[in-house]
Amino acid sequence: MRDRLQTTDRMQHWNIAINTTCVLCNEELESVCHLFFGCWFSGQIWRKLIEGLMQDDFITDWNVLKVLQSNPRLNPTKTFIFRYALQATMHTVWTERNARRHGEQPKDIGCLVRFVDKTMRLRLLLVKGMGQQYLDEALITWFGIQESNGEAG
Ligand SMILES: [Zn+2]
């Protein structure tokens, strides 16, 4: 959120030999805007996870997402989910990007979506266990979205 990630568009300022192509799509220059979620690969992950919640307001534009993150204009339950989902998706995409740069086997979109979904469920259950009542609603909302999505099953 503070734009501190060392994406390759930035690293090339001090390392000319670096490969600046996005390792997720292998097509475009890697930047923060591209990774979150201008890239068709990460954009698909974000779409599958959050389009059910955002519906017509669904967007992949990083600059808009940053603003939405501080003021999502959603009810408290959906706000909570939106922030957690954004955090978990960014973390997962960044981890996958690093894994690929280190030559690890690429994971596909479905696999990464299931991973974020699982992370979300665990987090919601964990926080719910700490006694926050409105999280029952958050859990039900999240399960409902992911079931209608039919991908994360
Ligand atoms: Zn890309």
Shape: elongated
Largest sheet: none
Mean of all residue-level pLDDT scores: 86
Oligomer: single chain
* Class per helix and strand makeup: mainly alpha
Catalogue the ligands: zinc ion
pLDDT under 50 segments (min length 5)? none
Q: State the share of residues found in helices, binned by percent.
A: 55-70%
Please, how many domains? 1
Order of helices and strands: HHHHHHH
Beta strand count: 0
What does this 3D model show about the protein?
The protein is built from 7 helices and no strands. It has 153 residues and is mostly helical. It has one domain (40-149). α3 crosses α6 (109-128) and α3 (40-54) packs across α7. The protein is elongated and about 55 Å long. It starts with 7 loop residues before the first helix and ends with a helix. The relative contact order is 0.12. Residues 22, 24-25, 28, 34, 39, 41 line the site of zinc ion. Zinc ion binds at residues 22, 24-25, 28, 34, 39, 41.
Which key features would you list for this structure?
single chain; 153 residues; mainly alpha; 7 helices; binds zinc ion
Secondary structure blueprint with pairings:
Blueprint: H1 8-11, H2 32-38, H3 40-54, H4 62-70, H5 76-101, H6 109-128, H7 134-149
Helix pairs in contact: 2-3, 3-5, 3-6, 3-7, 5-6, 5-7, 6-7
Bound molecules: zinc ion (ZN).
Zinc ion is lined by residues 22, 24-25, 28, 34, 39, 41.
